[in-house]
């Protein structure tokens, strides 16, 4: 089974995309992806509750294909975040949390730790659009959480420093690295696995922002074993989701 752990639905003029659930599922079918772990763009940058509700309704229409992140931008850590997590779990059966750095509001601040703790209590993986330094702080403070660093450092926010992301994961066994990236550094996936093991690498595409076939080829074409590819493509995420109480 292939599970894409990094997917967006909604409309973004900044990133020039528009995709509804049916659009995403067509992309998934074209590329042999079984399940999509989705965040709603509206929830990240405009209205947290409205976006999460929109995603929740899509999950109800496609319960066998879509998994939902409760999306919480930094501006809402102090504004009903814990209640929103519980609401989305109970109303829509959402299975993960996406935390996102809103401009000028840092991700790591005191109010993020209760969010991580609530995620851990629900046994929900957390996709963090973050830096290696921030992930080290979060993973060390709440090591029982399933924390996944989006893009493994290959973002402007994290200065493209995927080696720093690997170092953070080496020092924090609860930190996992997610593969979606617009940078394709030769040997980066092989190096990551040599340092932290395939069991701590999660497959994502960032669809519809990035080309899905390229993101899949980063894993399928890597010089690693088929067993390691299977773990990355879906085995690791399936294991985390099976832990949900």
Give an account of the 3D structure.
The structure is a single chain. The protein has 245 residues and is α/β, with parallel strands linked by helices. The chain has one domain (3-242): Alpha-Beta Barrel (TIM Barrel). The chain contains ten helices and nine strands. It has a nine-stranded mixed β-sheet. Strand 6, helix 6 and strand 7 (147-149) form a beta-alpha-beta unit. Helix 3 packs parallel to helix 4 (81-92) and helix 6 runs parallel beside helix 7 (162-171). The protein starts with a strand and ends with a helix.
Furnish the topology, listing elements before pairings.
Layout: E1 3-12, E2 17-19, H1 21-31, E3 35-40, H2 41-45, H3 48-61, E4 66-73, H4 81-92, E5 96-100, H5 112-122, E6 126-129, H6 132-141, E7 147-149, H7 162-171, E8 175-178, H8 188-196, E9 201-202, H9 212-220, H10 226-242
Parallel strand pairs: 1-3, 3-4, 4-5, 5-6, 6-7, 7-8, 8-9
Antiparallel strand pairs: 1-2
Share in helix: 40-55%
Number of helices: 10
Overall pLDDT score: 92
State the low-pLDDT regions, or none.
none
Query: In total, how many domains does the architecture comprise?
Result: 1
Tally of DSSP β-strands: 9
Range of strand content? 15-25%
The coarse overall form would be globular
- Give the CATH architecture: Alpha-Beta Barrel
- Largest sheet, if any? 9 strands, mixed
CATH topology, anyone?
Answer: TIM Barrel
CATH class: Alpha Beta
Offer a concise description of the structure:
The chain is of the alpha/beta class and 245 residues long.
What would the keywords be for this entry?
9 strands; alpha/beta; TIM Barrel; 245 residues; nine-stranded mixed β-sheet
